[in-house]
Amino acid sequence: MGKSNIPQAPRSRRPPRVQAASNLKVKIGLEVHCQLTSLKTKLFCSCSSDYRASEPNEKICQVCFGLPGTLPVVNAKAVEYATMIALALNCKVANRSLFYRKNYFYPDLPKGFQISQYDKAGGVPIASSGFVDVEGKRVRITRIQLEEDPGKLTYEGTIDKSSYSLVDYNRAGIALVEIVTEPDIEDAREAKMFLEKLRSLIESLGVSNGELDGAMRCDANISLAGGARVEVKNISSFKEVEKALNYETLRQKTFSGNATSETRHWDERRSITIALRSKEEEQDYRYFPEPDLQPVLIEPQQIETVRKAMPEVAHTKATRYEKDFGLSPQFARELAANKGLSSFFDECARLDHGYQEMAGLIVGELSGREHEVSPAEFVGLVQMIESGSITRAQAKEALREALRTGKPVREVVQLKKFSAVGDERAIAALIERVVAARPDALKEAGRDKKAFNYLIGQVLKEEPKAQPAVVARLLAQRLRGKQGKKT
Ligand SMILES: [Zn+2]
Hints:
Blueprint: H1 18-21, E1 26-35, H2 76-88, E2 92-93, E3 96-97, E4 100-103, E5 113-116, E6 127-134, E7 137-148, E8 152-155, E9 165-168, E10 175-181, H3 188-204, E11 216-224, E12 230-235, H4 238-253, E13 262-267, E14 272-278, E15 288-289, E16 296-297, H5 300-309, H6 314-325, H7 329-336, H8 339-351, H9 355-366, H10 375-386, H11 392-405, H12 409-415, H13 424-436, H14 439-445, H15 449-462, H16 468-486
Parallel strand pairs: 12-13
Antiparallel strand pairs: 1-10, 1-11, 2-6, 3-16, 4-5, 4-15, 6-7, 7-10, 8-9, 11-12, 13-14
Bound molecules: zinc ion.
């Protein structure tokens, strides 16, 4: 992003001094809109929510348009999913929440109002007061509300210069969960980390697929040093958030924090924010209770039922894997992020204790093919590595061959006559031969890990069946012996 893109302060002011202003405290609050893409139908009608592959304005009905005589009906599954999200974000779920009308005139709203929720003037959103911890930092969640998605506008050219726009109402009425944070985020990197965590939490609940175009969108409120709040809208993906926030923070710093309160649009193509309008005040929306809908009632008992039925979210599972099985953080994370792999691991962990070895093989070799080998067969292979009868490299080869041919793993091991050389005297002799031919590497190996690994590699090249762990141990002994002789 070139500096020339950044709008300059008015001429009457001194030239921007970004450096001097760079220590201004930045406060960022996020509003995340997450479509409940696992729902079959929209939030208030029976229109299909699978709109992405449709022609424009195909998935619409009289309820979507609020035509006279129609009445909205709340999708019960949407309430359940929103409750799951609320619980995963440590929120308090309201036993009685209300739908409100948010009135504004814009072509993306067929009814002229959006059915949403509200936290003032008697309004109660479905959940509030939660938090998400991201790498030691707590981001508080102000509230979560259920609302309908507006339609989708497509502009000719750019939003500020477009001579016309096209509207597609297939998206109008899709169930959205809006997640509002407190302004606890201090820079673009933190925002990105928070959003990634949020996305993985929501995806592991199975209620939304963030991969789908526009399924998770974000607006950001940014202020510097307690100055005016600028809202950046239309950040269409989490990837763009970091760019948009970095740009907007820098832009506001050129005003030394004296930016005007306004709504700006993130222009993805040009990578800049542009002024849309002065920020709406809440009274502009004339919120009032939706007269066509009953309050949403969720009994404490129902909340407990949802809690019990909730899938374990990925990060909780990863922490459990590290704690209970001693897995490395990387393996724990990769396993937990994949439902198929983690349930395969769970089954194997019931059969044997070689957890780290199992995790490594599963993550490295089985992705997407875990159904093609039985846990017992797989654990048998891991036991062969652990007992030293075959090497890890041989195990990987056997597994690949078994997946390729459909033969049982044990049979492949026998056919290939796999076996590890565990005879320490033979390996020690081999090490002697290898180091004698490479005196320079031997000198380095005591203090240089690379030279040490190089020597191991050379030994394995001569004897691929030698166990790397045994080679490493014997080579380390050999080096210690050598140093001992010198001193
Ligand atoms: Zn409809």
